[in-house]
Amino acid sequence: MGKGDKKTKKGKIAKGTFGVRRPKKKTDSGSNKKNEPKSKTKK
Asked: CA–CA separation, 9 vs 35, rounded Å?
């Protein structure tokens, strides 16, 4: 149960695959909201 075991997380990382033990991180298309400038009107 190590790098050679494709059913474990370490094995998935070693092989470069994804699955139940090592899910792909879901990227949100709207996750870039932090970098958007907020429009404020100054008078």
From this structure: 33
CB 24 within 8 A of CB 18: yes
Q: Residues 1-43: pLDDT tens digits?
A: 788 898 899 999 999 999 898 899 876 665 555 666 666 676 6
DSSP per-residue codes, 8-38: SHHHHHHHT--SSSSPPPPPPTTGGGGGSPP
How far apart CA 15 and CA 21 sit, in angstroms, is 13
User: φ and ψ at 21, to 5 degrees?
Assistant: -75, -25
Q: pTM for this one?
A: 0.49
